[in-house]
Amino acid sequence: MTVVMSRREQKAARRADLSGAGPVLEERAPMRFPGATGAFALFGEVLLTGLLIAVGGLLLVTLPAALAAGIRHLRRYLNAEASPQRRFWQDYLKALPGGLVVGALGLVLVLLLVLDIDLAASGALPGGVAVAAVGWLGLAAVAVTLLAAAGAWGPDAGWSGAMRGVPAALRADVTGVLFLVATAAFVCVATWMLVPLVIPALGCVALAVVAIPARRRRR
């Protein structure tokens, strides 16, 4: 017996099929990110996430908390889970106490490394090329550690649990480390070219942190 559905019922069935909330319309492998069904909708959500991160991380020391909340927000969206903006701010407030400590330490390290690079470029230090190389490697290490920890942060484990898991996670995916370095470099270049580009760049950072581990699991 053939069941004829109305156009509204067909649309509802397709949405339930794509999101995984209902029966599938045809046999196929489950989607990795069921929430990313429309390119334009995903682009808009990435921009929104970047804006939320930029607002939350405006003081710089609050950037780790904003990144952690933004990554969790975008991960919920990609998994077709409820992702209202209020949940971003709830995660942000939970991540803020420990995130301030991480942000302050990271900011001090970045300033020291930038100072070393400037001194090396001025010729005031012997072996300036080596000092500059160490400085740039240090900046890359700080950026990768921050992104990996923000991606692993959760209300239960907190920042201490996230930081403890960073070394093992990075050792398990060396290629992913290079992707994170490229992601951090992209943010710096985009911001240097035009400051407002930091908003979409931060959204792309959140998307990259979610997508890179999924790439590893797919293999």
Chart the SSEs and their pairings.
Blueprint: H1 7-19, H2 39-56, H3 63-78, H4 85-122, H5 128-152, H6 158-172, H7 174-193, H8 198-218
How would you explain this protein's 3D organization?
The chain is mainly α and 219 residues long. It has two domains: 1-30, no CATH class; 38-218, no CATH class. Helix content is 76%, strand content 0%. The chain contains eight helices and no strands. It has helices at residues 7-19, 39-56, 63-78, 85-122, 128-152, 158-172, 174-193, 198-218. Helix 3 (63-78) crosses helix 5 (128-152) and helix 3 crosses helix 8. The radius of gyration is 21 Å and the shape is elongated. The mean pLDDT is 85.
For the CA atoms, what is the radius of gyration?
21 Å
Uncertain segments are: none
Summarize the biggest pleated sheet.
Answer: none
- Regarding quaternary structure, what we see is single chain
| Strand tally | 0
Distance between the termini: 42 Å
Based on CA inertia axes, which overall geometry fits? elongated
Q: SS-based structural class?
A: mainly alpha
Strand content: under 5%
- Element-level helix/strand string: HHHHHHHH
Helix content: over 70%
**Mean pLDDT value:** 85
Number of helices in the DSSP assignment: 8
Whole-number count of domains? 2
